[in-house]
Design goal:
The complex is a heterodimer. Helices cover about 40% and strands about 20% of the residues of chain A. Chain A has helices spanning about 10-20, 70-80, 190-205, 245-265, 310-320, 325-335, 340-350, 350-360, 365-385, 395-405, 410-420, 430-435, 445-455, 460-465, 470-480, 490-500; strands at about 20-30, 85, 95, 105-110, 115-125, 130-140, 145-150, 160-165, 170-180, 220-230, 240-245, 275-280, 285-290, 300. The longest helix of chain A has 20 residues, at about 245-265. In chain B, helix 8 packs parallel to helix 16 (about 470-490) and helix 10 crosses helix 12 (about 360-375). The longest helix of chain B is centred in the last third of the chain and has 24 residues, at about 380-405. Classes of the chains: A alpha+beta, B alpha/beta. The interface of A and B includes residues 55, 96, 304 and 305 of A.
C-alpha cells in the first residue's frame, strides 16, 4: 500500500513481525488559571484578538515577568498526581528561537530543572494495566496564534500575509513528557490513546484545565521510532505535532509505524523530523527537519528568581489530590454493578467520566451506559470525533432520560431529541415542544385512530373478538404508524381490547 | 532668583522657601538645554511641554500646602533606556526609532509620582553597550570639560546633562560602570545601587543579571535623595529586594560631617597600578589620605579573581543581551526594513534585513559573541564557566568585606579620552570598565565621587567606593565625607573649574 505522496505503508501486522515500536508522548496542558503565566492578563479562551495583552505578554522592551503562583500550584498537583518527585529548587530557562508568534523570540520555559520529574501513570488498556513512566512535567508559557491569510492551505507556505493574536501568548502550559514507552508492541496505538485519554481524565479530576483537545487546551505530540525486533535499541524518531483527538493519537501512531516500516524495509533510514498530522486524510507529512543542529541556546531566565516550593506546601497539595484513577475505576465498577466487559468498554470508549457525570445528574448506571456506549458512541464514530467532544453533555443525556422516565418520550422519540440537541435547537424540553415529540396518550385522538385501524382491518378485528389477543399487535402497529410513533403503545393496546370486547 | 548651578537639595530648599518655582526652574533648565545642547548633545528628546506641565502641577501642589516628595518640582533628565509613557524611547538605537512606550518604567513612575518634571531623554551608547556614547545611533555626546572628548558611557548623556547644568539630576543605568565611569570623567557623582535595590521594570535590558538603575547627580546628597525616590521593592520586578532601603539621605548627611572614625577602608590591590593614568592614581591617593585624616583605617585587600572579571563579564553580558535583543524583529514595533530585491519577502527575510540595518556594529558584535557563548557544545566552556568565575568574584568580595567596611579604587583607569580614539578598538574600550565591572558581577553597590583633576590633562578623575550588598548607606556616608573634605580643599565645587559653555550652541 502506498500513500498519495508515494510512501509505502507496511500492513500493521507485518510491522510487528519485524520491528519493536518505541513511543514517546509530549502532552501540553493549558491551565485554567485566571491570569497568564507571567502577567496579570486574563487567561480566558477567546476574546477579541489582542485584547488580553499587556507590555509583559507582548514582550515590549523593558517589561518583566512575574511567576503566577496558582500555575506553580497546578504544576505541582499535576506532578504529584503523576507520582513525580517535586523539585525543591528549580528555575525557568529561556528557549531561544525566532518566530513571529513569540513576542520575545524566546519562550520562557524550564530546561534541565523541571518542577516535577520521575513519575508514572498506570494506564488501563483493555482491562490490563500498562505503566507509562513520566520523565518530567515542566512549566512554560504558550505562544501567540498565527493565522495565515490567503493561499490555499491555510499554512504559512503560500500565504499572502499572516495575522498574530497574542491573547494566547503567556497562557500557562504544563508540558508532560513520558520516558520512551517500550514493550507495547501491537498495542502501541491503543496505549498511546489510552494514556492521553486517561491523562485527560486525571487533569479534569484535578480541575486544573478544561483539557479539551478540540479547543487546543490539551495538545499531544507523538514521538515514534521502530527498532529491529528484539534488538533492544532505539531507532530514529519522528515527532508528529498537534494530534488533536484521542482517536487521532491512535491513528497517528499506527500510521507512523506503518510508514517507518516501509522506509526501513526498503533499506532507507528515518529522517529525524517534525511531522504534521492530517485529520482528514489520516496521514502525516513532513514538517521542518528537527536535527540535533537545532540549538535553542537554553540558559536560566535572569529576570526570575528560582521556584522553591516548601515541603510543607507540597504535602498540603498532596492532600488535595483526587482519588487515584485505578482505585477509582474499581470503586465505580462496584458501585455501578458493571461487569468487567462493561467496564473495559466504558474505559475504551473514553466514557468513564461522562457516565459518572450522567449518573450524578440523575440516571441509573445502566441507562447512562446504554446511551453513551450505544447512541453517543455511534454518533461520535460517525462524525469522527472523540465522544467527550460531542455537543451533547451528561446533563443533556440525564434530562432526556428524565423525559423518558416520566412517560413524555420513548426511546425512539428520545433519539429525535438528540438529533435536535446536535443541531443546536435548544434544551431537551424546548426540542420536545418545537418538534412536537411528546407521546400522545389523549384518549380522544387515540380512540379515533383505533377506530380507523379496526375499520381498515376487519379480519384482524374479528380474530381479536374471537379471543386471539396476540393479533392486537398488528393493529397497534397500524395506530403507531398513524400517530408517527408518538402514541403511548400501552394505552393503544388497552383501547383496542376494550373496543373489541376483550 | 533661579540658579541652575545649585544642587538639587538646595533647589528643593529654594522651592520650599518660595525663592523659586518649579516652572521657573524647569524653564531655566530648558533654556540652558537650548543654549548648550547643540554643542554637548546630551539629549535625544526634550519634552518642554510635558516638563512645564508637571512643573506647573508641582507649583500648584506646593501652593495648596502639599508636597509629593523632598524633590517635588526639581526637574530631571532620564536615560533613553528607561521606558517613558508617551515619550520616545530609543535606547540610542536605530531599531527603536519612533517607538513610544505605552507604559512607564517603575523608576520613571516613581520620579513622576514624586513630582519631578521630566526634561527629556538622554543619549547613550546603543542599548548601553559602550563606554563613550560614541556607539549611539544618534550622534556622540560631548564632554562638557572638553567638547572634543567623550563623556563616558554608556550613560554619557545623563552625566553630560548634569555636568553642563542642563539638568540638576538624572537617571542612569549601570551594567558594568555606565553610571560610575561617566560620573568619573565628567566630574559628577554616580551611584550603582545594590542589585535589586531599584526596580528594573521598564529598563530595556542589556544584561538582566547585571543591570541596575541609579542616580546621576552633582552631589552625594542629591544622589541619596534621588535614590530614596526610586528605590525599594517593586512587585513587577521579581529580582527586586523585598525589604526597606537603608536610610541613605541620613547617611549622606552624617558623612558630610567628615568624621569616619573607626571605618575600615580596603584598597583593592587588583584595581590600580599598571594601566592606570598617573594623574588618576595621584588623585586617588590624595583622596585616600583625606579619608585617613577623617579617622579611617586603610588596609590593602586582595581580590585575586578580579583579574578574570572583564572576561567573565564579556561572556555573561553578551549571552543575556543576545537573547534580550532577539525581540527587535520588526514584527510588532520599531524599525521595519524590507530586504532589497526580494519579491514577497518572508517574515524571516524582514527580520534579517531589519536587524542588519537597525543594529550598530557593537551590538552585532555582542549578539554574535553571546549567541556563540550559549551554543550547544560551548555553553559549559563559556557561559557555564563564566558563572562559576562570577561566584569566585563574589567570594573575593565576601573575604574583602570581612576585612574592610568599604572597598575603594579609582573609578576609571583614565580621564576622558578624545572622541574617536578607541571607537575602532573594542578591547581598549572595554578596559575602561575594569574597576567598575566586579560590582555588577556580584551585585554590590558602588558610588563614584569626583576626586579632582589629573595634573597632566586637567580633566576629572573619579574615586569609587564599594560596599556590601544592601549596605548602600556606607557608599553615601563615605562618599559624602570625601566630598566634604575635597570641597574644603578646592574651595568650591569641582565643576566650577569646567568651561562655562555659555552660548556654546550659537
Amino acid at each position: 500500500m502506498t500513500t498519495t505522496s508515494g510512501e509505502t505503508l507496511v500492513p500493521f501486522d507485518e510491522v510487528l513481525e519485524r520491528y519493536d515500536p518505541a513511543l514517546g508522548l509530549e502532552v501540553h496542558v493549558e491551565l485554567n488559571t485566571n491570569t497568564k503565566m507571567f502577567c496579570g492578563c486574563p487567561a480566558a479562551f477567546g476574546g477579541e484578538p489582542n485584547s488580553h495583552v499587556c507590555p509583559t505578554c507582548l514582550g515590549l522592551p523593558g517589561s518583566m515577568p512575574v511567576v503566577n503562583g496558582k500555575a506553580v500550584e497546578s504544576a505541582i498537583r499535576i506532578g504529584l498526581a503523576l507520582n513525580c518527585e517535586i523539585a525543591e529548587w528549580c528555575r525557568f530557562a529561556r528557549k531561544n528561537y525566532f518566530y513571529p508568534d513569540m513576542p520575545k523570540n524566546f519562550q520562557t520555559s524550564q530546561y534541565d530543572e523541571p518542577i516535577a520529574f520521575e513519575g508514572y501513570m498506570d494506564v488501563d488498556v483493555d482491562g490490563e494495566t500498562f505503566r507509562v513512566e513520566i520523565e518530567r512535567a515542566h512549566m512554560e508559557e504558550d505562544t501567540g496564534k498565527s493565522t495565515h491569510m490567503g493561499g490555499a492551505t491555510g499554512r504559512i507556505h503560500g500565504a499572502d500575509y499572516s495575522l498574530v493574536d497574542y491573547n494566547r501568548a503567556g497562557i500557562p502550559l504544563i508540558e508532560i513528557v513520558t520516558k520512551p514507552i517500550l514493550g507495547a508492541g501491537e498495542r502501541a496505538p491503543e496505549v498511546a490513546k489510552a494514556y492521553v485519554s486517561q491523562l485527560r481524565d486525571l487533569i479534569v479530576a484535578l480541575g486544573v484545565s478544561e483539557a479539551r483537545m478540540d479547543q487546543g487546551n490539551l495538545r499531544a505530540d507523538v514521538n515514534l521510532s521502530l527498532a529491529p525486533k528484539g534488538s533492544g535499541v532505539l531507532g530514529t524518531r519522528t515527532e508528529t505535532k498537534n494530534v488533536n483527538s484521542f482517536r487521532s493519537v491512535e491513528r497517528a501512531v499506527r500510521f507512523e509505524m506503518q510508514r517507518h516500516a516501509g522506509i526501513l524495509d526498503a533499506g532507507g533510514s528515518i529522517l529525524q523530523e517534525t511531522r504534521h498530522w492530517h485529520e482528514d486524510t489520516g496521514i502525516t507529512t513532513s514538517g521542518r527537519e528537527k536535527s540535533d543542529a537545532e540549538d535553542y541556546r537554553y540558559f536560566p531566565e535572569p529576570d526570575l528568581v528560582p521556584v522553591a516550593p516548601s515541603r510543607e506546601w507540597v504535602e498540603e497539595l498532596r492532600g488535595t489530590l483526587p482519588e487515584n484513577p485505578t482505585e477509582k475505576r474499581a470503586r465505580l465498577q462496584a458501585e455501578w454493578g458493571f461487569t468487567d466487559l462493561d467496564m473495559r468498554d466504558t474505559v475504551g470508549a473514553g466514557a468513564l467520566g461522562l457516565i459518572e457525570e450522567t449518573i450524578a445528574a440523575g440516571t441509573t448506571p445502566q441507562t447512562a451506559r446504554k446511551w453513551w456506549l450505544g447512541e453517543m458512541a455511534r454518533r461520535a464514530n460517525d462524525s469522527g470525533v472523540d465522544i467527550g467532544d460531542l455537543a451533547v453533555t451528561p446533563t443533556d443525556v440525564a434530562a432526556v432520560q428524565a423525559l423518558v422516565d416520566s412517560g413524555t418520550l420513548n426511546d425512539k422519540l428520545a433519539r429525535q431529541v438528540f438529533d435536535g440537541l446536535f443541531a443546536g435547537e435548544g434544551t431537551p424540553e424546548e426540542i420536545v415542544a418545537t418538534r412536537g415529540l411528546a407521546i400522545v396518550s389523549d384518549d380522544g385522538a387515540l380512540s379515533a385512530a383505533v377506530d380507523d385501524a379496526i375499520a381498515a382491518n376487519p379480519d384482524v378485528a374479528d380474530k381479536i373478538r374471537e379471543g386471539k389477543v396476540a393479533a392486537a399487535g398488528a393493529l397497534i402497529g397500524e395506530v403507531m404508524k398513524e400517530m408517527r410513533g408518538q402514541a403511548d403503545a400501552g394505552r393503544v393496546r388497552e383501547l383496542i381490547l376494550e373496543k373489541l370486547g376483550q | 532668583m533661579t540658579d541652575i548651578r545649585r544642587s538639587a537639595a538646595d533647589l528643593a530648599a529654594d522651592l520650599a522657601s518660595g525663592a523659586t518655582t518649579s516652572v521657573e526652574l524647569t524653564q531655566a533648565s530648558l533654556d540652558r538645554i537650548a543654549e548648550v545642547d547643540g554643542a554637548v548633545h546630551a539629549f535625544l528628546h526634550v519634552d518642554a511641554d510635558g516638563a512645564l506641565a508637571a512643573a506647573k502641577a508641582s507649583d500648584e501642589r506646593r501652593a495648596s500646602g502639599q508636597s509629593a516628595s523632598a524633590l517635588d518640582g526639581v526637574p530631571i533628565a532620564v536615560k533613553d533606556v528607561l521606558a517613558t509613557r508617551g515619550l520616545p524611547t530609543t535606547c540610542g538605537s536605530r531599531i527603536l526609532e519612533g517607538w513610544v512606550p505605552p507604559y512607564d518604567a517603575t523608576a520613571v513612575a516613581r520620579v513622576k509620582a514624586a513630582g519631578l518634571p521630566i526634561l527629556g531623554k538622554t543619549n547613550m551608547d546603543e542599548f548601553a553597550m559602550g563606554s563613550s556614547t560614541e556607539h549611539s545611533a544618534y550622534g556622540t555626546t560631548h564632554n562638557p570639560w572638553d567638547l572634543a572628548r567623550i563623556p563616558g558611557g554608556s550613560g554619557g548623556g545623563s552625566a553630560a546633562a548634569v555636568a553642563s547644568f542642563e539638568a540638576p539630576i538624572a537617571l542612569g543605568t549601570d551594567t558594568g560602570g555606565s553610571i560610575r565611569q561617566p560620573g568619573a570623567v565628567t566630574g559628577t557623582v554616580g551611584v550603582k545601587p545594590t542589585y535589586g535595590g531599584v526596580s528594573r521594570y521598564g529598563l530595556v535590558s542589556l544584561a538582566n543579571s547585571l543591570d541596575q538603575v541609579g542616580p546621576v547627580t552633582r552631589t552625594v546628597l542629591d544622589s541619596a535623595l534621588l535614590h530614596e525616590v526610586i528605590g525599594g521593592h517593586d512587585p513587577k520586578d521579581s529580582t527586586s529586594i523585598d525589604q526597606p532601603l537603608p536610610s541613605l539621605v541620613e547617611a549622606a548627611r552624617q558623612g558630610a560631617t567628615g568624621d569616619l572614625s573607626g571605618l575600615r577602608v580596603g584598597v583593592v590591590k587588583e584595581l590600580g597600578g599598571e594601566g592606570y593614568q598617573t594623574g588618576v592614581l595621584t588623585r586617588f591617593q590624595e583622596s585616600l589620605d583625606l579619608l585617613v585624616k577623617a579617622g579611617a583605617d586603610v588596609v590593602e585587600v586582595s581580590c585575586p579573581n578580579f583579574v578574570h572579571a572583564l572576561a567573565t563579564y564579556y561572556l555573561i553580558l553578551p549571552a543575556e543581551a543576545s537573547s534580550n535583543l532577539a525581540r527587535f524583529d520588526a514584527m510588532r514595533y520599531g524599525l521595519r526594513v524590507l530586504p532589497e530585491g526580494v519579491e514577497a519577502p518572508s517574515a524571516e527575510d524582514v527580520m534579517r534585513a531589519t536587524r542588519e540595518a537597525g543594529f550598530g556594529d557593537e551590538v552585532k558584535r555582542r549578539i554574535i559573541l553571546g549567541t556563540y557563548a550559549l551554543s550547544s557544545g560551548y555553553y559549559d566552556a563559556y557561559y557555564g564557566q563564566a558563572q562559576k568565575v562570577r561566584t569566585l568574584i563574589s567570594r573575593d568580595f565576601d573575604a574583602a568585606f570581612a576585612q574592610a567596611d568599604v572597598l575603594v579604587s579609582p573609578t576609571a583607569p583614565t580621564t576622558a579620552f578624545p572622541i574617536g580614539e578607541k571607537v575602532d578598538d573594542p578591547l581598549a574600550m572595554y578596559l575602561n570598565d575594569l574597576a567598575t565591572i566586579p560590582a555588577n558581577l556580584s551585585g554590590v553597590p558602588g558610588i563614584s565621587v569626583p576626586s579632582g583633576l589629573a595634573e597632566e590633562d586637567g580633566l576629572p578623575a573619579g574615586f569609587q567606593i564599594l560596599a556590601p550588598a544592601l549596605a548602600d548607606d556606607r557608599c553615601y556616608r563615605v562618599g559624602a565625607a570625601l566630598e566634604a573634605l575635597l570641597l574644603e580643599q578646592w574651595g568650591g565645587p569641582l565643576l566650577d573649574k569646567a568651561p562655562a559653555l555659555d552660548g556654546a550652541s550659537a
